[in-house]
Amino acid sequence: MNTPSEALDLEDMYRRAVGLHQAGDCAGAASLYEHLLGMVPEAGPVYYNLGLARYELELYREAAEAFHRAVELNREDVDSWYNLGLALKQCHEFSQAEEAYLQALALHPEDAEVLYNLACCYKDSDQVSRAMEVYEHLIELKPDHVSGLNNLAYLKHLRGHFEEARKLYGRVLELRPGHPSARHMFGALSGDNPRSAPREYVRDLFDQYSDNFEQHLVLDLGYDLPLKMRAVFDRFDGRRSHYELALDLGCGTGLAGMAFQGVCSRLDGIDLSEKMIEMARGKGIYQHLHVGDIVEYLRSVDVCYDLFLAADVLIYMGALEEFFQVLADRARPGGLFLFSTEYLEKGGWQLQPSGRYAYHPEYIREVSEQTGWTVACREEVPTRKERDQWIRGNVFGLIREG
């Protein structure tokens, strides 16, 4: 048992730890919390605060350990259960995170944020039906929950319930008129044809799914478009044996870069999503990586490339005249632009209910000629699976004139 003097010392240390925490010094606070727990190992609130500090330091597994100890000491603490769920989800321990959220809901059945995060956990672990059920319950309790409405709309769209999704996106826009993904998807499901997808929509889409992007695309959907593009490249008679400088447009996590290793002396990449760029950097195949808009970037540099790659990039572009012209301005004479599109039966280009743009080959030919490119090859390829059906597409190879 601590003496009165020791108790005062502990209280002072706790106040200093909380002060550091509130000032943003999470590392200093965590160190003091740990020191305190060495002297008072049964102090549940200190474990809780330690968990918060570690979470803010992105030490998610260590945070989960602290929150787990907090709930062992007080199983009625809703906040500790909730934050345990958050930390476990960050560790991709979805089933354990779900259990923590359910424990929190047993104590507070109508807590909107716990319900929302439980639904997100189900969504991110591909338990779509359960996720929709919880989102629907959340919206019954809190009809103006924008993130819940938007995520439910996304899942309805994923399941092919387009009209229900459209109405939900419309509700999001009533509450938040500038919401990028709701605006884009409401337009897509309403037959609109804007000149491009909102930059914020594309960035947020890929930031959100960067952690399991390759798992979902490659393993779950059988995605191999970069390899199909490489096969078209290898069959193309007009290709060079080697390229000096290549730019992977919308490089994502680096799947196209991996497929085209060895064809160039230097490979650079650009993407709107900072999280995607971080994953691409981890592959160690790019000499330079840039976060930003492709057109703005190319207008800001003096570098000229002799190979451009764009796998599943034009599907977020819409009208292509400006894009093709900027690429032409930064292409060396005889340079190659290899890219994929989704196929449009008639018309030039159209935003599809999927939220992606599709193109008729004749439109590609016309824009190419207008901007100094020549269509040197085109092959039909299936691009991706959607609701167990392959999406028709094309791979084009354009040569820069001059």
Automatic annotation (TrEMBL):
Keyword Repeat included in the entry's annotation: yes
Keyword terms, alphabetized: Repeat, TPR repeat
TPR repeats: 44-77, 78-111, 112-145, 146-179
Domain of life the protein comes from: Bacteria
Entry-linked PROSITE patterns: TPR
Keyword Repeat part of the UniProt annotation: yes
SMART domains xrefs: TPR
Methyltransferase type domain boundaries: 247-339
A single MF term (Gene Ontology): S-adenosylmethionine-dependent methyltransferase activity
Pfam families linked to this entry: Methyltransf_11, TPR_1, TPR_2, TPR_8
Family annotation (InterPro entries): Methyltransf_11, SAM-dependent_MTases_sf, TMTC_O-mannosyl-trnsfr, TPR-like_helical_dom_sf, TPR_2, TPR_rpt
Protein name: Methyltransferase type 11 domain-containing protein
Organism name: Desulfolithobacter dissulfuricans
